[in-house]
Design brief:
By secondary structure, the protein is mainly beta. It is about 0% helix and about 55% strand.
Length: about 100
């Protein structure tokens, strides 16, 4: 699909507490994610770059040793291989996330 309507897109369960809609191309993945209040990803890493913007709400994100409170219109960039994670607070957050597609050899 070439066009999205972020506010009206139907999201599906990605994992408990996280709804998502993703488009997967040859080289990129774009995902809109709705993260419920009180959710947390304690950290992970992968072998591709990732970036995004907070569309609604707020979340605390760490990338390596850096930790930041992100709110609407704040952006993030996660270099390949860097450990990162996030948590939401008393309200949900919605993000638009873009990452390079992982190459499997």
């Amino acid at each position: 699909m070439a066009f999205w309507y972020l506010l009206g897109s139907q999201l599906e369960e990605f994992r408990p507490g996280v709804l998502s809609k993703a488009e997967i191309g040859d080289d990129l993945i774009m995902a809109c994610m709705h993260i419920a209040a009180g959710e947390e990803d304690s950290g992970h890493s992968h072998h591709f770059d990732q970036c995004g913007v907070v569309l609604e709400g707020r979340l605390e994100m760490f990338i390596g040793k850096d930790r930041q409170l992100l709110k609407k219109n704040d952006c993030y960039f996660i270099p390949s291989g860097e450990r990162h994670g996030w948590k939401t607070f008393d309200e949900p957050a919605r993000i638009l996330d873009v990452s390079a597609k992982q190459v499997t050899e």
